[in-house]
Design a protein that fits this description.
It is built from 9 helices and 16 strands. It is α+β, with helices and mostly antiparallel strands. Helix 3 crosses helix 4. The mean pLDDT is 94.
């Protein structure tokens, strides 16, 4: 039913791992094959292509559904429907920023300090051109095929480049002047495919599986036993997603408690539960959480 396109390159491994964890394993003949399949009746065809190209292909209807970055959606000006962000790898768990940067010793402090004719090197020609036009600056924006930060000062006066922390830019002797865009990876659909009831329903189901898998990565299931006198104290420190499940233990005055809790705090939660009287504490991984 759905024609799906997934990103090749830096996001490829993490994307395939996410789909496998969501029980949507991607199968292909080799790691360099651009064609793939997913054993799911909702997915008819799978391609693996560069994320820079995906927004335009989805917008043109070559694919119904795809994964790409907000930066490339904005760069290409593609008309796509976003189902939402997917933060599934180190590179996508926090936003990538598209920034304007100059030499660290440059007197430029804001974009308006730049003069007409400023030489700008970037992979984001469309995004950068529109940015300077909004600020009334006639910039000479040139396409960079890589090593963009190395082009100041001989080849360019400024760069429009992506960064996560700014560390690489600082190491190259550059200083960030402005953040143009914050970008996450997104699941996007062709507008006409999204308007089709059957395709939209299939897309929503796939999105639920992917999002449920991502949510589960941040949670664990905790199960424990506790005596009746200690029950209130234990419940008070359990940071459950909803109310914890409590069951009476057969033949005793104790209770069994289970709750879904943040994985990030489990290292302090388990000792605290034990200190408050909990016993037989079990931590279990969760595959999916679909509300």
């Amino acid at each position: 039913m759905l024609r799906l396109v997934l990103p090749k390159g830096s996001l490829e491994k993490a994307t395939l791992e996410l789909f496998e964890a969501a029980d949507l394993a991607v199968t292909r003949s080799s790691e360099v094959d651009y064609r793939a399949t997913i054993n799911d009746p909702r997915i008819a065809d799978v391609r693996i292509l560069r994320p820079q190209e995906i927004p335009r292909y989805v917008a043109e209807g070559m694919f119904d559904l795809g994964i790409t970055g907000r930066d490339w959606i904005e760069e290409t000006g593609s008309d796509v429907h976003s189902l939402g962000q997917l933060r599934y790898s180190k590179a996508t768990s926090r936003p990538i920023k598209v920034v304007l940067a100059v030499a660290a010793d440059s007197p430029v402090r804001t974009v308006t300090d730049l003069d007409d004719g400023v030489r700008v090197s970037t992979e984001y020609v469309g995004l950068a051109t529109r940015y300077f036009e909004r600020h009334g600056i006639k910039a000479d924006v040139r396409l960079s095929y890589g090593a963009t930060e190395a082009k100041i000062p001989e080849i360019a006066d400024a760069v429009v480049e992506i960064t996560e922390t700014g560390r690489a830019l600082r190491a190259a002797g550059l200083r960030i002047v402005d953040t143009i865009l914050e970008s996450y990876t997104e699941l996007v659909a062709h507008p006409l495919a999204w308007a089709d009831d059957d395709k939209r329903h299939a897309m929503q189901q796939l999105h639920s599986l992917l999002e449920g898998t991502l949510v589960a990565r941040t949670r664990v299931l905790v199960k424990l036993n506790v005596s009746e006198p200690d029950l209130d104290a234990v419940i008070a420190i359990v940071p459950a997603m909803k109310s914890p499940t409590i069951s009476k233990l057969f033949g005793t005055d104790g209770y069994a408690v289970e709750a879904v809790v943040p994985k990030a705090t489990i290292n302090t939660l388990i000792p605290a539960l034990k200190d408050h009287g909990a016993t037989d504490i079990i931590e279990l991984p969760i595959a999916k959480i679909v509300p």
